[in-house]
């Protein structure tokens, strides 16, 4: 359901940007590092939206990759913890549990 909502919101946003861009077709002067040039405003708007989407998507993928790596690490630690004997569990519980130990590390998820 969340995926469908995000998809619908993305379509609405794309439609709004497209309508806005179509109404702004005038040529504008663009200053580059090495000079200036003329470009239609529609290309500037669509290019800016595209670059913003790429940058946002890149940061999102990096975050997802870190969370998947952390999940895999925690699952491995849990399997190791479950494979030990109950006596070792009692000894380990006095020190700290694997989940508490990992939560002390620098994790990308900030808990509020």
UniProtKB/TrEMBL annotation:
Residues 77-86 have a biased composition (Polar residues). Residues 24-83 form the Lipopolysaccharide assembly protein A domain. One of its GO terms (cellular component) is plasma membrane. Keywords: Cell membrane, Membrane, Transmembrane, Transmembrane helix. Residues 77-112 are annotated as: Disordered. InterPro entries: LapA_dom (IPR010445). The chain crosses the membrane at residues 37-62. It holds the Pfam family LapA_dom. Residues 101-112 have a biased composition (Basic and acidic residues). PANTHER family: MEMBRANE PROTEIN, MEMBRANE PROTEIN-RELATED. This is DUF1049 domain-containing protein. It comes from Pontibacillus yanchengensis.
């Amino acid at each position: 359901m969340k995926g469908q909502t995000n998809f619908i919101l993305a379509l609405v946003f794309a439609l709004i940007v497209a309508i806005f861009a179509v109404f702004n077709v005038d040529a504008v002067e663009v200053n580059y590092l090495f000079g200036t040039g003329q470009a239609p405003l529609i290309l500037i708007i669509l290019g800016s939206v595209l670059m913003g989407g790429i940058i946002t998507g890149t940061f999102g993928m990096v975050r997802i990759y870190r969370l998947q790596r952390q999940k895999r690490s925690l699952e491995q630690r849990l399997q190791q913890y479950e494979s030990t004997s109950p006596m070792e569990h009692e000894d380990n519980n006095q020190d700290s549990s694997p989940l508490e130990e990992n939560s002390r590390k620098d994790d990308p998820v900030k808990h509020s």
